[in-house]
Amino acid sequence: MAKQEDIFKNVVSHAKEYGYIFPSSEIYDGLSAVYDYAQNGVELKKNIREYWWKSMVQMHENIVGIDASIFMHPTTWKASGHVDAFNDPLIDNKDSKKRYRADVLIEDYCEKLYQKAQKEIEKAKKRFGEAFDENQFVATNPRVVGYLTRKQEILERMARGLDNGDLADVKALIEELEIADPDTGSKNWTEVRQFNLMFGTKLGASADSAMDLYLRPETAQGIFVNFLNVQKTGRMKIPFGIAQTGKAFRNEIVARQFIFRMREFEQMEMQFFVKPGEEMKYYEYWKETRLKWHLSLGMGPENYRFHDHEKLAHYANAAADIEFNFPFGFKELEGIHSRTDFDLKAHEKFSGKKLQFFDNETNTSYVPYVVETSVGLDRMFLSVFSKSLVEETLEDGSTRTVLRLPSVLAPTKATILPLVKKDGLPELAQDIIEELKWDFNVAYDEKDAVGRRYRRADALGTPFCITVDHQSLEDKTVTIRHRDTMKQDRVAIADLRNIIENEVSMKNWLKKMK
């Protein structure tokens, strides 16, 4: 655990030191769980967003995008259920005075049971080698069966308690499991209570006439209320999808773990409208498709897993998370939900307007079902950044800190380095920048020895360093160094664009999904 905490601290400090993420309004001592994306962070975030948008909208003929307003009519949130049901179950520790989500405490306890089962499986794998039958072992080994059965029983009981509003039983479960405050070890808990997460605000010129509004807690409702507008103007046929990226706001009382859980965050969502009865087919399709998208970035399949929901939201008939192995363990990265026809029917009821699709082939109208994919852009950022940060020991025994960002997402694609600051080398380096900057973000660095500049580019996550030397003046060639392998090649200046493009193009990376 200590090692994981150290890794996470390194992620947070590296993000600040190298211009990725700053605490918001830091000169005024900051604001809890609010962060600013710095000069490199904003580029990485933009590239992740574009990588998602290209794969989701540009590569699908039947998916289009919108950008709905953050402010929406307040009845929107009554219809969606957020006014009445958008709550977190919170519990306070009387000794530490710290507040936690009760469901997260229980889920973390269950994760430890799962990890114990995994350790037994790994030990058996080493013991039996190629003859090991994992499925049979999981089904028959008493310890593994015990851990996994206990985990399932606990999650099912928690889900029943939350579904039925029996918060006393949720607290009883925490006490029976002897779950302690993670920081102090105290088991002195208050009752569990529900807390609504929406931020309220007002719209109007005067306090007397102002309308009560909410900052949107999700981007999905902006899609649902525009369903008919998009369908008619785009002449869309079922099945079709509407995608959106944008800010959402939740008054998270337990906001921690850096940018994993914030009060102001960004979502990348797509709502896919299907014929009733076909939703499970598309639910499975989008589960598979979204996992392929994540895997295309090369972060390693062992860092992803599916988690099926024990407690379904009020609108869903199936739900699963793609979880990622963050420095603090496996946590939700993306949700895939079969939302049924709940949202469109609710907005029909509250607005008095029909939100239906007319099928010309059958001459009938119906309210479509919806399959949702929703990934947090900030969490996506954290998953990529944290897994890319590596402390590497080299052959000569020295170490280097390298940010192995997928090159397609890297903020700066190449740094141009003149070997010395004279003899016309800086001028040729600037000429190269002038040529490359039309296609890529590139940087110039002439300070310090070349080796130190290489290390600086490695820590920034820049895939290529291009060194201009005296030979460059003679034959118009340069040395290009690859971040991950540190291999150096002599190439023609005229070939630089194609070399970089081949490595960083979204087309080449997205083709890995096929």
TrEMBL record:
Positions of the Aminoacyl-transfer RNA synthetases class-II family profile domain: 177-406
Q: Which gene encodes it?
A: glyQS
Q: Is Ligase a UniProt keyword of this protein?
A: yes
Its source organism is: Myroides pelagicus
The record's similarity note reads: Belongs to the class-II aminoacyl-tRNA synthetase family.
Give coiled-coil spans as residue ranges: 107-134
Its EC number(s): 6.1.1.14
Catalytic reaction(s) noted: tRNA(Gly) + glycine + ATP = glycyl-tRNA(Gly) + AMP + diphosphate
Q: Does the keyword ATP-binding apply?
A: yes
Q: Which InterPro entries match?
A: aa-tRNA-synt_IIb, aa-tRNA-synth_II, aa-tRNA-synth_II/BPL/LPL, Anticodon-bd, Anticodon-bd_dom_sf, Gly-tRNA_synthase/POLG2, Gly_tRNA_ligase_bac, GlyRS-like_core
Q: What is this protein called?
A: Glycine--tRNA ligase
The function of this protein is:
Catalyzes the attachment of glycine to tRNA(Gly).
UniProt entry keywords in alphabetical sequence: Aminoacyl-tRNA synthetase, ATP-binding, Coiled coil, Cytoplasm, Ligase, Nucleotide-binding, Protein biosynthesis
* Residues binding substrate, per UniProt: 101, 218, 265-269, 372-376
- Where does this polypeptide localize? Cytoplasm
A Pfam family hit? tRNA-synt_2b
